[in-house]
Amino acid sequence: MDIEKDATLRRLEDYLRGKVQLCIELLNISLKDLRESPPEFRCEDFQDPIKADRIRKFLILKERYKRPASLILFYLLKKHLKLNAIEIYIHDLVAGAPAWEQGIPGGRDIDFIVVVDSKLDERAKSKIREIERYLNYLVGHAISNYFWKKGLCPKNIPFNEMINHNLIEIIIIPTDKKSEFGLNSSFKIIEKLDITWLESKLARLKRAIMLGKMDYLEKYLE
What we know:
This protein is of the alpha+beta class. The protein has helices at residues 7-27, 31-35, 49-80, 122-149, 159-163, 195-210, 218-221; strands spanning 40-41, 85-91, 93-94, 97-98, 106-107, 110-116, 168-174, 191-192. A hairpin with a 2-residue loop joins β3 (93-94) and β4 (97-98).
C-alpha cells in the first residue's frame, strides 16, 4: 500500500488517532487498565468490580475507534484491493465462533466480517492480511503513542504487541457462509455497516481534500 502518497488515507489515520487519544484523555484510562483487561469478557468478570471497570473502559475505547477503522477498512478494500464488499459486519468471535454461543459477551478485538461475491486468490488473501496488520498497528500505535507522549510508558510499542493480541480481525466470506457466523441471526449484537454511508463519507472527505479544506475531520466523517 502506497500510504505516503495517499492523502485520503493519511487523513483517515488522523481521524482514528484523534478519536482514540481523545477517548483515553477524557476517560482517564490507564495503560495498566487496558493491558490487564481480560482477552474475553466473560459474564463472571462483571461480578468483579475491578475487572468490570477495565472491561467497561476497553468497550468504550473499542466503540470510539470502530467507526474510523470501518472507514479505513472499506477504503482499502475498495481502492487498494479492488474488492467489492457486498456487506460488512462488526462482530465478536471467539475461536472463530460467535461469542454468545459460548456464553461470552465479547472480547478485546473487533471482528470485521466482509461478505463478497467472488472467490479470493492467494494474492488477495495476502493483501487482506497486510491490511489487517496495518489496522492493528494503526490502532495499537494510537493507543501506546498517547501514553508514551505523556511519559507513562518507556517505549513507543504498539499496544497490540504489548498484549500480544489483535485489536482488529478481518474475515472474508462468500454469501453462502453467512449463517456459519450467525449473520442471519436476529441478535442485535451484530452491527451491519451501511455501505452507502461509508461511500458518502469517503466522497465528502476526498472532495474536501481536493478543495484544500483542512477543517475538523468530524465535519466530513461524523
